[in-house]
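Bumping my old thread because nobody answered last time. Still need a sequence for this structure:
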């Protein structure tokens, strides 16, 4: 049996997702059920703050919870794909209600600023992706006759694996020996395979 709080979360989910976001009733009901499971765990663990690493559908779950509980949230925003369909991704609501937002770069920060009033810009913090040089120190590259290159990631236009292939194609024409392993799956799979057939 739903509590009054659960009913409020349900109507917020309908308002946000069915009328503004995905506009898919089945998906909206799925969001609501996930929200109930999430809220149960958060209460059990006495969590008062949730940090969501992406502003994607995962962040959609915390919106209704935030509106009807004392649990607040923050976001990490990467891009660029999250900015392709801003209405469906409910970015205005997510950015407005977040306690703070981590942007990975200048472009990302500028896109977030478009959705916020100037007085909220201070809650955007730019923290680039990178490695700690104190942990991952530079070392001498092995003098292999064949250079081994590994690319790990989703095979989508925004990841740019085609750029790697174009660059390696140029190096191949200059006589460089290499072996490339692309690890991942996605919509660009057939495109990348067809492009490799044109390389010498």
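Sorry it took so long. Here it is:
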């Amino acid at each position: 049996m739903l509590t009054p709080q659960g009913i409020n979360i349900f109507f917020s989910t309908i308002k946000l997702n069915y009328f503004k976001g995905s506009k898919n009733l089945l998906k909206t009901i799925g969001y609501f059920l996930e929200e109930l499971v999430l809220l149960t765990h958060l209460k059990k663990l006495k969590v008062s703050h949730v940090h969501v690493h992406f502003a994607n559908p995962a962040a959609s779950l915390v919106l209704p919870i935030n509106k009807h509980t004392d649990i607040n949230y923050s976001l990490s925003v990467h891009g660029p794909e999250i900015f392709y369909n801003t209405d469906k991704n409910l970015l205005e609501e997510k950015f407005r209600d977040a306690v703070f937002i981590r942007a990975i770069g200048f472009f990302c920060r500028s896109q977030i600023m478009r959705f916020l009033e100037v007085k909220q810009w201070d809650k955007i913090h730019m923290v680039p992706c990178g490695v700690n040089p104190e942990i991952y120190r530079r070392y001498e590259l092995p003098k292999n006759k064949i250079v081994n290159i590994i690319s790990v990631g989703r095979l989508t236009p925004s990841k740019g694996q085609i750029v790697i292939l174009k660059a390696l194609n140029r190096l191949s024409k200059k006589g460089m020996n290499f072996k490339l392993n692309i690890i991942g799956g996605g919509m660009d799979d057939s495109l990348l395979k067809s492009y490799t057939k044109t390389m010498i």
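The radius of gyration is 22 Å. Let me know if any region looks off to you.
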